[in-house]
């Protein structure tokens, strides 16, 4: 990548282990889909008194030559309405979507 990876957390505490997990997913994207220029990953937790367990949404902004891809993986809005209280699961699922979209963008 031309620019350093950016990772942001909103409503949840990040950790070195979670950041390393995100870095590994980005490295995998770089290996499978050449040309990645930049990547910004944002994890956001919702919840509070009305939703004590909340859910975690993941947004990934990928910079490719001549275009940007925006991936928002929010299980709260999926038909199955699966909740991802586990940030690692939410990140894994979001990067699966990102990989498919990058492959589609190459086609």
Write structural notes for this entry.
The chain has helices at about 15-30, 85-105, and strands spanning about 5-10, 40-45, 55-65, 65-75. The chain is α+β, with helices and mostly antiparallel strands. A 4-stranded mixed beta sheet has the order 1-2-3-4, with helices on one face. A hairpin with an 8-residue loop joins β2 (about 40-45) and β3. α1 packs parallel to α2 (about 85-105). The radius of gyration is 14 Å and the shape is globular.
Note the topology.
Elements: E1 6-10, H1 16-32, E2 38-46, E3 55-64, E4 67-73, H2 87-106
Helix pairs in contact: 1-2
Radius of gyration: 14 Å
Biggest pleated-sheet summary: 4 strands, mixed
The coarse overall form would be globular
Q: Which regions contain 5 or more consecutive residues with pLDDT less than 50?
A: 48-52
State the end-to-end CA separation: 21 Å
Protein structure class: alpha+beta
Record keyword descriptors for this entry:
107 residues; alpha+beta; 4-stranded mixed beta sheet; 2 helices
Give a brief rundown of this model.
35% of the residues lie in helices and 29% in strands.
């Amino acid at each position: 990548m031309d620019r350093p990876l950016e990772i942001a957390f909103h409503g949840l505490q990040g950790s070195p282990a979670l950041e390393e997990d995100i870095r590994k997913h980005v490295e995998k994207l770089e290996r499978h889909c050449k040309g990645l220029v930049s990547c910004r990953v944002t994890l956001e937790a919702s919840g509070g008194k009305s939703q004590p367990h909340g859910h975690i949404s993941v947004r990934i902004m990928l910079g490719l030559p001549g275009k940007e891809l925006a991936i928002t993986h929010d299980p709260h809005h999926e038909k199955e309405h699966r909740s991802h209280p586990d940030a690692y699961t939410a990140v894994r699922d979001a990067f699966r979507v990102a990989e498919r979209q990058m492959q589609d963008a190459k086609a």
